[in-house]
Design goal:
- By secondary structure, this protein is an alpha/beta fold.
- About 40% of the residues lie in helices and about 20% in strands.
- The chain has a 5-stranded mixed β-sheet with strand order 2-1-3-4-5.
- The protein starts with 7 loop residues before the first helix and ends with a helix.
- About 40% of the residues are buried.
Length: about 150
């Protein structure tokens, strides 16, 4: 039996798998997973085109599914792994959920939450960035390159 190494990289790869599902649906390829006690409790990918809903970002869908799984709205014991830095809408939702940690792959220079002052996130939220940054970045860059 193979032992799985539940590292940040492992969970980011799961988020990348979700992003690839979004790509197959011609959605902006962003994927997210929420982890609690080294277990994935929710996973999602962008569905803004499919649902014709500007709020159907991977993070928003993953937050909702995680809260449903836990039976409560607070995710302070959870980590969100997402392939692209969350936008301000998603960061606001993450702040309200009191997410314990956010790990993202690629920075979003145009719409990422880190561009905003004062900080949007809950003050206790830890942030890890640039996990598998090259792979996450390449996926989204290639998507937009194919659209132009």
């Amino acid at each position: 039996m193979t032992k799985i190494n539940f590292s940040d990289e492992y969970f980011m790869r799961q988020a990348l798998n979700e992003a690839k599902i979004a790509l197959q649906k011609d959605e902006i390829p962003v994927g997210a997973v929420v982890v609690c006690n080294k277990q994935i409790i929710s996973k999602a990918h962008n569905l803004t085109e499919t649902l014709n809903d500007v709020t159907a970002h991977a993070e928003m869908l993953a937050i909702t599914a995680a809260a449903e799984f836990l039976g409560g709205k607070y995710l302070n014991e959870c980590t969100l792994y997402v392939t692209l830095e969350p936008c301000s809408m998603c960061a606001g939702a993450l702040a309200w959920s009191q997410i314990g940690k956010i790990a993202f792959g690629a920075k979003d220079e145009k719409r990422g939450f880190s561009k905003h002052t004062p900080p949007i996130l809950h003050p206790k939220t830890q942030i890890i960035h640039t996990i598998l940054e090259d792979e996450c970045s390449e996926l989204i860059k290639n998507f937009f390159k194919s659209k132009r």
